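User: What would this chain look like folded?
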Amino acid sequence: MADVQIHPIPPLYDGESRILILGSFPSVKSREGQFFYHHPQNRFWKVIAGVLNVKPPETIAEKAAMLHGAHIALWDVIGCCVIEGSSDSSIRDVVPNDLSPIFQAADIRAVFCNGGTSYRYYQKYTQGQTGVEAVKLPSTSPANASWSLERLTEAWQVILPYITN
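Assistant: Here's the prediction, encoded as structure tokens.
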């Protein structure tokens, strides 16, 4: 059954953030765990660790520290919506998150969307306000089973020039 859900996780960023990675809306597991990509099958943390050539973080503190250390901000495009479970295809009645606090606090040089749903909603609701075109990356979701971890990590390498300068 689809219910109205309000995004429960604050954005992760600081004044040193240089890129913003956006998901669509937190999964049920992420909402329960109160942190991004909390589902054990989601490959986000392994992909970012692979791109950075570091050991995958295990705790929320380690995950946050890895992103801060790499100057990566993280949030979702959608602040409130009707969603059935974790299914992006069921999302409707979208209210976007206000990304302006991140852009005001940090010198965001690029926006990357984790999958097609976040990309579509970013283009529809937010790109006009930020003025920054997003790059659509393949989703790290377990639903994107056709992409191996290795292939995802290779595709996500495009973030490196923005975080190593």
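The mean pLDDT is 94. If you want, I can go into more detail on any region.
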